[in-house]
Amino acid sequence: MAVVPYNQQDVNLLARLIRAEAEGDGKLGMLMVGNTGINRVRAECLDFKDIRSIQRMVFQSPGGFEATQKGYFYQRAREKDKQLARRVINGERFHPATNTLWFFMPQGACPATWYGQSNVGRYKSHCFFAPTRADCPTIY
């Protein structure tokens, strides 16, 4: 059962986003990026208080995703990307991105915090950051 409202266009957008942001990190890395995006739709906290749809999450500015803001969000959604998008829309979560709102790809080690959120882990090239339950209970 979906944890956020969606339609087929939303599946395609999320699939394109996870491909653009994490294709190099494989299926699990793409699922973790999807977790972060879905958490932003579910969140009623921090920079994500007015993000109630997948479309708004994908194109949020400022504070959105590098893929949509720097021009590499152009690839079509493949069926395998859509399957991954549907999995996170339906509530599947993957550690360390279970409750994350931010991720990024540093050139070196992951910093301890990012936008005031704690580093909760790294998967391949991406570091993931989550707020506390007190700061954002809707994603826990």
Architecture overview:
The structure is a single chain. This protein has 140 residues and is of the alpha+beta class. 37% of the residues lie in helices and 12% in strands. It contains 5 helices and 4 strands. The protein has a 4-stranded antiparallel beta sheet, covered by helices on one side. Helix 1 crosses helix 2. It is globular and about 35 Å long. The chain starts with 7 loop residues before the first helix and ends in a 10-residue tail after the last strand. The model has no long low-confidence stretch (mean pLDDT 95).
Secondary-structure element series: HHHHHEEEE
Mean pLDDT: 95
Instruction: Report the major sheet.
Output: 4 strands, antiparallel
Number of beta strands: 4
Offer a quick outline of the entry.
The protein is of the alpha+beta class and 140 residues long.
